[in-house]
From TrEMBL:
The lineage of its organism: Bacteria, Pseudomonadati, Pseudomonadota, Alphaproteobacteria, Rhodobacterales. It holds the Pfam family DctQ. It is a multi-pass membrane protein. Part of the tripartite ATP-independent periplasmic (TRAP) transport system. Its main location: membrane. Residues 61-168 form the Tripartite ATP-independent periplasmic transporters DctQ component domain. It comes from Jannaschia seosinensis. Keywords: Cell inner membrane, Cell membrane, Membrane, Transmembrane, Transmembrane helix, Transport. The chain crosses the membrane at residues 12-37, 74-97, 109-129, 149-172. InterPro entries: DctQ. This is TRAP transporter small permease protein. GO terms for cellular component: plasma membrane. GO terms for molecular function: transmembrane transporter activity.
Amino acid sequence: MLARIVEALARTMAVLGGLVLSVLVMMICASILGRFLNGVLNDPPFEGTAFAAWLLGLGIGPITGDFELVEAGMAFAIFAFLPIAQLTGAHASVDIVTAGLGERVNRVLAMLWAILFAAVLVVIAWQLYQGTLSKARYGETTYLIQFPVWWAYAAALVGAAIAALVGCYVAAVRVAEFATGMAILPDEGPEH
């Protein structure tokens, strides 16, 4: 039951992270196209024409605050993908040394890394929580669109908290795997 809940949570976060990344990519493309068209419409032969004035009047140009929105969205997306990567063992690894070690030693290493990673994720989530409170208390906003900075922190905090939860679950499973000698979770992601 717990395994299904954790997996559903991790997959949901990955889907949300993918949606946010997709929206960011579309926004970046629209902003680049708008910036290009704005430049074209402000240069000869279109400069000063009624057509150019009409298009520019519609607001053709870069999206105001696009960098600020990308910054906020990427913070969320990064933390949104951590739970599924942790759960499936998809983090990058170099196994030159560990490939020659026995299965028991590799289980110990997997357990220790999972515990360490869970601890790091808990610390990151805690620090993001503190940062969210601090940014909300001071009312800091972004420069161009006056977007409250704490909103981005809060969105990243959701991802970090779920990543910490999944990290703790994976650490507990790795301890159980070590104690029983049974494989419960994948050791590593796909081979490339």
